[in-house]
Amino acid sequence: MERTLSIIKPDGVRKNVIGEVIKRFEGAGIHIVAMKMLKLSKEDAKRFYAVHKDRPFYDSLTDFMSSGPIVVMVLEGNDVIKKNRELMGATNYKEAAAGTIRRDFATDIEQNVVHGSDGPDTAVVEIAFFFNQLEIYS
Ligand code: CMP
């Protein structure tokens, strides 16, 4: 059994697709074991995306990620990191496969609706950024 962090980004909340994204997770047999809506400050967003601090899009990305509420979830299931990434599709929605969340709802390489951890080590760090153990209901 594996866990991963999923974020419905500010554009996903604004586009009113929270339920649609959750439906796709549950339809794939993934369990949501923690969830909350919150708004990141610019500083929070910079800490969360610190790995990208030298990338040209860092300032814009962290402005965007602090521009409105997000929904953060811990997903649990067998092979859930890979499954979630398959459901999301490629970072650039133009390259995402048909039927993926980003292909269906993203409008921009930055405003790409969802974030998902890219591996087991990242998942542990990203889950701990948003949730403590008492908030996760396995
Ligand atoms: P995410 O999977 O959350 O990881 C980093 C984010 O940076 C990515 O989704 C996009 O929102 C954003 N991003 C990645 N590449 C670019 C890019 N070339 N230009 C702008 N934003 C990007």
Question: Can you tell me about this structure?
Answer:
Helix 3 packs across helix 4. This protein has helices at residues 10-14, 18-27, 42-48, 58-65, 80-88, 101-105, 120-130, and strands at 2-8, 31-38, 70-77, 114-116. It is an alpha+beta fold and 138 residues long. A 4-stranded antiparallel sheet has the order 2-3-1-4. It starts with a strand and ends in an 8-residue tail after the last helix. It has 7 helices and 4 strands, in the order βααβααβααβα. The protein binds adenosine-3',5'-cyclic-monophosphate. Residues 52, 57, 61, 91, 109-110, 112, 115 line the site of adenosine-3',5'-cyclic-monophosphate (CMP). It is found in: Cytoplasm. It comes from Desulforhabdus amnigena. Major role in the synthesis of nucleoside triphosphates other than ATP. The ATP gamma phosphate is transferred to the NDP beta phosphate via a ping-pong mechanism, using a phosphorylated active-site intermediate.
